[in-house]
């Protein structure tokens, strides 16, 4: 079965390895977004595990020292490789697999698991005019994929922090970037369609058309206190989320996440100067997760703390 890149995914009852094999690993920092990505740090407690078919695609980023990894998928011949820090693996949804780790020096299996819903692959394929029923995600061990490493290392602090600074919009952007990367580099996508996946619609000079940009920025302004998502802003601009981020950056010079943070800082600045609202209410009204989150960004962008800004 192709399409969403899964094989018999209707039979896969478990969304991730931790749910499929309780107690098989030390799991830390599990986090899910509304756009179909779940991530967690995964440290297996045994040297070998057998993973049933999963409902989601799994992308693994190795975080520890080099370790020998043997992988077998659905009865295929086992593949063994020395995986260094930053090495990765892709396991398509719907495929059972076996994994074995062997020590090399001080190497231990310590990885970031990133799970993507097959629906994301379908949406990305449709966004570039490709029939999703003709696409499958390809699995395998990769000694080094710089894009997977970059996305994973950007996502990791969001899992480990008690109060993440990036927020939902930042994680949404990472999930979209990972989805597009799988479609481009780890799928059966053909050459012409692959080129389409690297291009974006928009005005001839690049960027969003004027009315679309205005709808996007108006939507941010009207919903600044809420939990803004990349999908929501892109929908306001009537643009695919998989193209929106780059088009928006070409138009404004900022990523959607950077733009939203700047707008929230400006809203907080106005409230601090013109009202007597307590700091925690200012933070909430401006859309920050908490007061310290607001303080961090005011200090970073304006060079002053909320208290100093209020006191002049």
In short:
Helix content is 42%, strand content 18%.
Lay out the secondary structure.
Elements: H1 17-20, E1 25-32, E2 37-44, E3 48-51, E4 57-62, E5 67-73, E6 79-83, E7 88-91, E8 97-102, E9 111-116, H2 118-127, E10 140-142, H3 146-160, H4 167-185, H5 191-197, H6 210-222, H7 230-236, H8 241-252, H9 256-274, H10 279-286, H11 291-302, H12 306-311
Antiparallel strand pairs: 1-2, 2-9, 3-8, 4-7, 4-9, 5-6, 5-8, 7-10
Helix pairs in contact: 2-4, 3-4, 6-7, 9-10, 9-11
The CATH class label of the largest domain is Mainly Beta
What number of domains?
A: 3
At the fold tier of CATH, the topology name of the largest domain is Jelly Rolls
Overall 3D form: globular
Distance between the termini: 64 Å
Unreliably modeled segments? none
Beta percentage is 15-25%
What characterizes the major β-sheet?
6 strands, antiparallel
Q: Can you offer a commentary on this structure?
A:
This protein is an alpha+beta fold and 312 residues long. The protein has three domains: 9-165, Jelly Rolls, CATH 2.60.120.10; 200-253; 259-311, Homeodomain-like (Arc Repressor Mutant, subunit A), CATH 1.10.10.60. The protein is 42% helix and 18% strand. The chain has twelve helices and ten strands. The strands form two sheets. Strands 1-2-9-4-7-10 form a six-stranded antiparallel sheet. The chain has a four-stranded antiparallel sheet with strand order 3-8-5-6, with no helix packed on it. The chain starts with 16 loop residues before the first helix and ends with a helix.
């Amino acid at each position: 079965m192709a399409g969403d890149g899964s094989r018999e995914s209707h039979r896969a009852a478990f969304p991730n390895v931790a749910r499929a094999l309780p107690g098989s690993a030390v799991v830390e920092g599990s986090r899910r977004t509304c756009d179909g990505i779940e991530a967690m740090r995964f440290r297996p407690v045994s040297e070998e595990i057998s993973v049933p078919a999963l409902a989601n695609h799994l992308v693994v980023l190795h975080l520890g020292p080099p370790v020998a990894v043997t992988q077998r998928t659905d009865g295929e011949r086992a593949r063994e490789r020395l995986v260094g820090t930053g090495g990765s693996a892709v396991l398509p949804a719907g495929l059972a697999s076996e994994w074995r780790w062997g020590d090399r020096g001080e190497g231990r299996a310590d990885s970031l698991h990133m799970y993507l819903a097959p629906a994301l692959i379908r949406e990305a394929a449709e966004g570039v005019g490709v029939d999703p029923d003709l696409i499958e995600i390809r699995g395998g061990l990769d000694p080094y994929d710089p894009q997977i490493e970059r996305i994973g290392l950007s996502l990791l602090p969001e899992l480990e922090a008690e109060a993440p600074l990036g927020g939902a919009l930042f994680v949404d952007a990472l999930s979209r970037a990972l989805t597009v990367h799988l479609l481009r580099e780890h799928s059966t996508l053909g050459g012409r369609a692959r080129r389409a996946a690297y291009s974006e619609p928009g005005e001839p000079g690049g960027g969003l058309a004027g009315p679309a940009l205005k709808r996007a920025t108006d939507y941010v302004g009207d919903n600044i206190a809420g939990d803004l998502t990349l999908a929501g802003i892109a929908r306001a601009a009537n643009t695919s989320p998989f193209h929106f981020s780059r088009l928006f950056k070409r138009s404004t010079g900022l990523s959607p996440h950077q733009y939203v943070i700047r707008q929230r800082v400006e809203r907080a600045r106005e409230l601090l100067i013109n009202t007597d609202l307590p700091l925690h209410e200012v933070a909430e009204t401006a859309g920050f997760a908490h007061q310290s989150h607001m303080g961090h960004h005011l200090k970073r962008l304006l060079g002053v703390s909320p208290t100093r800004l209020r006191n002049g």
